[in-house]
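Project standup — Tuesday

K.O.: blocked on the structure for the chain from last sprint. Re-posting the sequence here as requested.
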Amino acid sequence: MNKVKDSVMVSDPASWWRRLCRVTDQLHLCGDLPQSYWGARRNLKGWVDDGITHIVDVRGEYSDEDLVKKLQPQVVYAFHGTHDNGGPQKNSWFNEAVDSVVAAIRADPRNQVVVHCHMGVNRAPSLAFAAMLELGFNITDALTAIRSSRPIARILYADSAVRWYGNRHGWSEQKTAEARQEAKNWHKQNPVDAGWVISRIRKEERVNA
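H.V.: unblocked you, prediction finished:
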């Protein structure tokens, strides 16, 4: 059934917020860099020390492009900002953002890509999921790999990712519907209380503001 084991679930979501999580040999997930200069400098250096060569930032509300260019100019930074309002994500966003991730991974087996949004709960994991589909992973295996590596990943936009992938590859309506149902079933079997996760991270934000 490929259900994620209960042992990977955590009671302290905030501890995962800015933790770099390896999903595949070349793909990672994380929350964003701290807002403070010194905090961002420290965490960015940590990413580089862990081998990160490419950053794909999907926050629509903020960009670290200038900061990364100043502190770690050798790191390739790609900005593909989008909303986090719970509604569908556009195919055009997936087209551009997935191509950035996949191109970096395929260009060199030594490349290490981190995809991040603000909290690393919905947008970044959903893009990672879409990229994994493009890289040849099946739906269940991709979702399971993401959740296993990052237990706070809700992957809210997985349905949009499946619809995008089906559209890009010319799937029939029936095949797309079956794929969407597979993703829906996985989420039913592996629920995450996104409200709880987000509330704990926001509490951490307030404490460290």
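K.O.: great, moving the ticket to review. The domain at 19-191 is CATH 3.90.190.10 (Protein-Tyrosine Phosphatase; Chain A). The helical segments are 37-49, 65-71, 91-107, 123-134, 139-149, 158-168, 173-189, 194-207.
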